[in-house]
Design a protein that fits this description.
The protein is 73% helix and 0% strand. By secondary structure, the protein is an all-alpha fold. The protein has one domain. The radius of gyration is 32 Å and the shape is elongated.
Length: 187
């Protein structure tokens, strides 16, 4: 039994040292970047596994979610580190500067989540998704040359005989109120 505890002790000590270093050197950007990384992998994967949605909807949603997290990871890093850098430049006392930089890093990460990421996503994602889906649709249409690819609906006019005194039954003027004029408060 003494042999087993001696083997566990070095691992426990390494784990303790790791946790102490992580606690001392922890930055606000690390956990949010890790979360964004996992979300960037898992959310599109779970979306694609959904059996109830249409394939095109799944692809669009998965692409959007993946791009959002791809934008989020560097944005969290830049906003957090830039905020910490500003604190270090503004405050000359090293102890106060360290405290302020951690607090401002947290505020920078929150600002990234609230403002920077949604703004960047609204600017970048829609053109990318539209371009991707347009290219995909063009490839699909090119693969089926036998079909007509006309987006304009074509209607053939229907001729209805008119006897000169009465309008045909399927015209909008068959209603009596339409022929007389609009009546207020009734039919």
């Amino acid at each position: 039994m003494g042999n087993v505890t001696q083997n566990i002790k070095p691992w426990a000590q390494k784990l303790e040292n790791f946790c102490i270093k992580l606690g001392k050197n922890n930055k606000a950007t690390y956990p949010v970047m890790a979360i964004a990384f996992v979300k960037g992998i898992c959310r599109p994967a779970f979306t694609m596994m959904d059996k109830t949605e249409k394939p095109d909807t799944k692809k669009y949603t998965a692409l959007r979610e993946g791009l959002t997290e791809l934008i989020a990871i560097p944005t969290y890093l830049v906003c957090g580190e830039a905020s910490a850098w500003i604190a270090k430049k503004l405050i000359k006392d090293p102890v106060e500067s360290a405290k302020a930089s951690k607090n401002l890093m947290f505020i920078g990460v929150c600002g990234a989540a609230l403002f920077a990421i949604p703004a960047l996503c609204s600017v970048a994602i829609n053109p990318i998704v539209k371009k991707f889906l347009k290219e995909k649709k063009e490839k699909e249409l090119a693969a089926r040359p036998e079909e007509k690819h006309n987006s304009v609906l074509q209607f053939k006019p229907v001729l209805i005989p008119f006897n000169g005194t009465k309008r045909p039954l399927n015209t909008p003027y068959n209603n009596t109120s339409a022929r007389i004029g609009m009546k207020v408060g009734g039919v």
